[in-house]
Design a protein that fits this description.
By secondary structure, the protein is an alpha+beta fold. The protein has one domain: Outer membrane efflux proteins (OEP) (Up-down Bundle). Helix content is 66%, strand content 8%. The chain contains eleven helices and four strands; from the N terminus they run ααααββααααββααα. Helix 5 packs antiparallel against helix 6. The longest helix has 67 residues. The chain is elongated. The two termini are 58 Å apart.
Length: 438
């Protein structure tokens, strides 16, 4: 009977320490437990669904179309005014048209001081800002989808691990019950194995609930409450490459976030030039014809109208625009410092997590496997009791859970870092984040 338990222990060692349980590419147990219906899901498909169904992106695209229309409108000239006038009506006691005159005038406003050019420049910059806002919103959505997808991969790995652990606990419990019934071990060992089995079942059920929540969370990113996708594809063990911090800084300087900050300053400078242009009044040019209604007398009229800037030279408007530009420059500088500091902090966190993942895989996991092997051998020789064997199995399970958790945190941090720089860490690296898939 001890040989049976030894075989179960060997099975536990092989099942819990051989191929990584978080690879998830062909997890039959995970597919059955999760009761998944539908085709397998890739991150690229999840991002496509989210992009197609996002109301936020649809609204941002409408804003871009609006800004493009306003830019075209900003470049148009002002319309001329047509004036028709009748003078001297009823000036005599006779016919009320005696002595009356008609006048026709067309007036065109000529914008001076570069007003039209400044208006076009500002509208162009605002259009660029709308496009950058759309790109930023797409990046935010990609980060949200990636985070939900990573959570789903972690949940799938957890289910696979705990289903295997439950299977091992059931087999071990059956073997212990048979051994107790044969009178070779006290009934206390059956109680211990029952407790272990109950805990394994609770952990397995909990992991399944977490998996269902993770699936619903991913489906929510594309605006649906129900989902019909199957297994989420992805390998958490793919750590990818981490570029040097100097390379990361170069990528960040070319990101949409930095472009947006530079654009804000340029908009401020154009507004200052626009306010300065308002100092110069516009010139109204009129041309027309005046003629008598009772005769053939007529005269051509040409007029120029220029307001005199005696009281208002828009000095306060210029001062306000200058102050706003300085305020924007300080805010942009502060945002740059904060973003660069956050980027460095996340980068250092990523390096730390990579070392943690390697430490778990290279040190903690092999040590837990050796501890289980020693406990198994000692139990087979009667040196250790069932409690020591169960404790070794729990330790290995705990280390494997820590491995999955560390891998999830590692990829979450990559997702955060790529969101900050607005693109993948390494161009061409498939990864498992939406920024890399874009």
């Amino acid at each position: 009977m001890r040989t049976i338990i030894l075989q179960i222990c060997i099975l536990a060692t092989l099942s819990m320490s051989s191929s990584p349980v978080y690879a998830l590419s062909d997890s039959v147990a995970n597919r059955q437990v999760a009761t998944e219906i539908g085709p397998d899901l890739s991150l690229a498909h999840a991002l496509e669904l989210a992009t197609q169904n996002s109301p936020r992106l649809a609204a941002a695209r409408a804003v871009v179309e609006r800004s493009e229309a306003l830019r075209r409108q900003a470049g148009k000239f002002t319309n001329p005014d047509l004036e028709v006038e009748l003078e001297n009506l009823g000036a005599t006691d006779g016919d009320w048209l005696d002595g009356a005159e008609s006048a026709f005038r067309i007036t065109q406003t000529l914008e001076l001081g570069g007003k039209r050019g400044h208006r076009k420049s500002l509208a162009t910059l605002e259009m660029d800002q709308a496009r950058l806002d759309l790109a930023e919103m797409q990046s935010n959505l990609a980060a949200d989808v990636s985070a939900a997808y990573i959570a789903l991969l972690v949940a799938q790995a957890s289910v696979e691990l705990h289903v295997k652990a439950l299977t091992i606990a059931e087999e071990l419990h059956n073997a212990v019950v048979e051994r107790v019934q044969s009178g070779k071990v006290p009934s206390l060992e059956e109680v211990k194995s029952s407790v272990e089995l109950a805990e394994a079942r609770i952990a397995s059920n909990r992991s399944i609930r977490v998996l269902r929540v993770a699936r619903a969370g991913l489906a929510a990113t594309w605006g649906v409450e129900t989902f019909d996708f199957g297994h989420a594809l992805g390998d958490l063990t793919n750590l990818g490459e981490i570029p040097a911090e100097s390379r990361l800084d170069s990528i960040w300087r070319q990101s949409p976030a930095v472009a947006r900050l530079e654009l804000l300053e340029e908009i401020g400078r154009v507004r200052v030039r626009q306010e300065r242009g308002l100092r110069i009044p516009d010139l109204n040019v009129s041309a027309g014809l005046t003629r008598s209604l009772q005769g053939n007398d007529k005269a051509y009229v040409l007029a120029l109208e220029l307001p005199l800037p005696l009281f208002d030279r828009n000095t306060d408007g210029i001062a306000a625009a200058d102050a706003e530009l300085r305020m924007t420059s300080h805010e942009v500088r502060d945002e740059r410092l904060v973003a660069r500091s956050e980027l460095g902090a996340v980068y250092r966190e990523l390096l730390s997590l990579r070392e943690e993942v390697r430490a778990v895989s290279r040190s903690a996991l092999p040590a837990a496997e050796r501890a289980l092997a020693v406990s198994r051998e000692g139990y087979s020789q009667g040196k250790f009791g069932l409690l020591e064997l169960l404790d070794a199995q729990r330790t290995l399970l705990s280390v494997q859970e820590q491995q999955i958790e560390s891998l999830g945190e590692y990829h979450d941090t990559i997702n955060e870092l790529e969101h900050l720089i607005g693109g993948p860490l390494v161009v061409g690296d498939p990864g498992i984040t939406a920024q890399q898939g874009r």
